[in-house]
Write a structure and sequence with these properties.
By secondary structure, the chain is an alpha/beta fold. It is built from eleven helices and 14 strands. It folds into two domains: 59 residues, DNA polymerase, domain 1; 282 residues, Aldolase class I (TIM Barrel), CATH 3.20.20.70. Helix 1 crosses helix 2 and helix 6 runs parallel beside helix 8. The protein starts with a strand and ends with a helix. The structure holds iron/sulfur cluster. The site of iron/sulfur cluster has 12 residues, from loops.
């Protein structure tokens, strides 16, 4: 079995190549070739001798994602990729060209076990966790495309398929890895992790001293509605989630974002907005309203524009900082998991 070097830190690469009598400084070159210059084979690493390349080829591999589907929105601002990993499993990644820069939404698991009602990623359950290298490879694929246009990724959001905090070790490893100067050199402040509220892991993340933004998928103002939309709420109720979020803010100083998907007739009533105001009053947080992306399999509908604006105004009038998420790529099935589901159906 050859060892996959993609997804390793420079020091770890050095450890591996030392066994084959390659000097430590070669690890830096290998890391830069893989992560900065997007090399897929050792023969592309022209600063290494042919002999070194042959040694590496014999013992190691570089596993990158391959793109099996790609959809571009009509306005060319959103590109959705379906990537395949070494074992043939697939997950989605989205590039969003925003006015403030290029943001990439990454998947952290193949499928998801969390069962959120509005989400297509969970329809076929969880297949497996993604490794740090597999998450990084999604990002670098997009970075390569942007690089050809002399642009670069400015921010990342872990908001694709999967619950990042269930895949904790790989996710934290990935965050540290893409902060390294020989990979992406991304600042922690340009990273956002979205969770459905795995309470013990929120406390653990607060202790990591990574000043990333935490985004909490709230989607309801009380346990009754939240448990209906998000089964995880039966394990970690809304009070517990809000307490953990406040603790995260106190420890990191990073303001929390609460995601609230608006579903017609389920959580978009003024009574819900009022309850939300009472829960969030006094917190240094902002609410991001997301009109639901229709998931035909679940029969969920998007509220009318009037209802969306009414909900938003109610929060704003009560001093809760609120935005409505700008829609991007609805013409290319931008809801998380839809492209993969179509691909799996066609494959069958
Ligand atoms: S919203 Fe996130 S946590 Fe919920 S099912 Fe979808 S991928 Fe999983």
């Amino acid at each position: 079995m050859k060892t996959n070097l993609f997804g390793l830190f420079q020091e770890e690469i050095a450890e591996h190549i030392r066994e084959h009598k390659l000097e430590k400084y070669r690890a830096k070159q290998i890391a830069e070739w893989m992560y900065r210059h997007h090399a897929s084979s050792f023969s592309e690493m022209t600063t290494l001798s042919k002999k070194m390349q042959a040694v590496l080829e014999e013992h190691f591999v570089i596993e990158r994602v391959t793109c099996v589907r790609q959809k571009v929105s009509a306005d060319n601002k959103t590109i959705k990729f379906l990537f395949s990993f070494a074992d043939g499993e697939t997950a989605e990644t989205v590039l969003m060209r925003q006015p403030y820069g290029n943001s990439v939404c990454l998947s952290t698991q193949v499928g998801c076990a969390m069962g959120c009602l509005f989400c297509a990623s969970t329809l076929a359950g969880l297949k497996r966790n993604l490794t740090a290298g597999e998450i990084l490879s999604q990002l670098l694929y997009v970075q390569k495309i942007l690089g050809e246009e002399e642009q670069h990724v400015t921010s990342i959001v872990l908001m694709g398929s999967g619950e990042p905090l269930v895949n904790y070790d790989n996710v934290v490893r990935f965050l540290r890895l893409c902060h390294e100067p020989y990979t992406m050199g991304l600042s922690y402040r340009s990273m956002t992790l979205s969770t459905c509220g795995i309470v013990p892991s929120i406390y653990r993340l607060a202790d990591e001293e990574l000043p990333i933004t935490l985004s909490i998928s709230l989607h309801a103002p009380n346990d009754e509605i939240r448990s209906e939309i998000m089964p995880i709420n039966r394990k970690y109720g809304i009070d517990e989630v809000l307490r953990a979020s406040e603790a995260y803010y106190e420890k990191t100083g990073r303001r929390i974002t609460y995601e609230y998907t608006l579903i017609d007739g389920k959580n978009d009533m003024i009574s819900c907005a009022d309850e939300l105001v009472r829960r969030l009053r006094g917190q240094n947080a902002n609410v991001n309203l997301i009109p639901v992306n229709p998931v035909p399999e679940r029969g969920l509908n998007r509220p009318s524009l009037t209802r969306i604006n009414r909900f938003c105004s109610y929060l704003q009038d009560h001093k809760i900082q609120t935005t409505i998420r700008k829609e991007m790529g609805t013409d290319i099935d931008a809801a998380c998991g839809q492209l993969r589901n179509q691909y799996l159906k066609q494959k069958k």
